[in-house]
Each structure stands twice: as structure tokens, then as C-alpha cells.
Design goal:
This protein is an alpha+beta fold. It has seven helices and ten strands.
Length: 219
């Protein structure tokens, strides 16, 4: 058990699950998009759907999409900030099967037209679990430095990435590979003990058959 488990995150309230965790869901979605969000559709399930106005979950997710951290007082005004920056959003209530009570599906579009869809849950104490990125089922906690590598499922893809990390003296704490089907879309989720330099991220992106690389700092 660490201090985070005892006292929770440094945050703007009122709730670690409904506010801080929701901010983190927005932050990861924005990081995966890799550019400013201009449009967002946010679907809320379970407890999120029932109490999001009272707990500020709506403000928290929008704040995260703007890049606002959990301890930033601007969360309270995130919707006004979004309007001033040209971020359009809407909330919808949904019923999801076998989903955690604090679950959201966040679908965003960026300035270039790129889009990302994330299904994630706030699982308590400000902690989160991302269970789907676009059409792929994954498990991302963002408690470590995390590299998310989108690629085509081909022989040698995993070896190319891990070999490059080894040459850069990056130790892999945990790694999982997900794919839609043989030879289809795939994704590596790699948690490391070291910080990933932006230059290394660029090198990873140049590997074949890598399509996109996102580095998520612990949040």
C-alpha cells in the first residue's frame, strides 16, 4: 500500500471516483488523439449517468479533454473554457452490459479530422482502467509510464519494438499485445520503469508496421 492508496489523489472535489478519475479518462483520451479536441461525444453509464451533474463528472471529463489536471481549479469552469476554445461536446446516457458503474465512452475528433474512441472506468481513489481503444479491447491503468503502439499484426512487429527499447536501456515492467484478428489491427500496451524520451517515441513510430505511438505519463 502506498500513500496514494491511503489519502487518494491531489484533486479538485467532490469525488475521487466521479471527479478525479473522470479527469484522467479525459486526459488519456486527449493523449491518444494527440491533438486538440474540437468535438466530443461522451456516453455515461451507471453511477456516472445518474450523478454526473452533482459530482461534476461532466466538467471533469471536459477538463481532461482540455488537458487540465486533477488538481487544477479550472475544472470548475471547464465548460466555459471549452466553449471559448471551440471544443463542442454533448453527453448521452447509455446502458452498457457488464460494465463498471463508473464507465464512460468518449469519442473525440481533433483539428486534423483524426478520431479516437475510448471506453474507460473510474475504479476508485482516482484510479482508472481503459478497457477499449477504438475497436480493440485493452487494459491500460496509466499508473506507469505507458507506451501504446498501434500496428498491423505481422511477424516481427513485437520484436522490433522490444529490441529498440532494449537498445535504449528501457526496462519493460509489463507488456500485453491485443489484436482484432490475425493479420489485422493490433496494439501493444507497454509499461516501463523509465521515462520515454520524445526522440524514442519518434524512432518507434518509424518502425514497420507501426502505425501510431502514444506515450502516456503516469497520471
Amino acid at each position: 500500500m502506498n500513500v496514494f492508496d491511503v489519502i487518494g489523489p491531489v484533486m479538485i472535489g467532490p469525488s475521487s471516483s466521479h471527479t478525479a478519475g473522470a479527469v484522467r479518462l479525459g486526459l488519456i483520451t486527449q493523449a491518444l488523439l494527440g491533438e486538440p479536441v474540437i468535438d466530443a461525444v461522451i456516453e455515461l453509464h451507471g453511477s456516472f449517468a445518474r450523478t454526473y451533474r452533482g459530482h461534476g463528472t461532466d466538467k471533469a471529463i471536459v477538463g481532461g479533454l482540455l488537458g487540465i489536471e486533477t488538481d487544477d481549479e479550472r475544472i470548475r469552469n471547464s465548460m466555459d473554457i471549452a466553449s471559448s476554445q471551440g471544443l463542442f461536446y454533448r453527453f448521452e446516457v447509455v446502458e452498457l452490459k457488464d460494465a463498471h458503474p463508473n464507465t464512460a465512452i468518449i469519442e473525440v475528433t481533433g483539428q486534423s479530422g483524426k478520431s479516437v474512441s475510448v471506453l474507460g472506468s473510474s475504479v476508485g481513489g482516482g484510479n482508472i482502467l481503459i478497457r477499449r481503444i477504438n475497436h480493440l479491447g485493452v487494459e491500460v491503468t496509466a499508473q506507469y509510464e505507458t507506451i501504446i503502439v498501434a500496428h498491423t499484426d505481422t511477424p516481427g512487429a513485437v520484436a522490433a519494438v522490444t529490441d529498440l527499447l532494449a537498445k535504449q536501456l528501457i526496462n519493460i515492467a509489463q507488456m500485453k499485445v491485443y489484436r482484432s484478428n490475425r493479420g489485422g489491427e493490433a496494439m501493444m500496451v507497454i509499461e516501463t520503469d523509465q521515462t520515454i524520451d520524445p526522440a524514442l517515441s519518434i524512432l518507434l513510430g518509424e518502425l514497420l508496421p507501426v502505425r501510431n505511438v502514444t506515450v502516456i505519463e503516469p497520471i
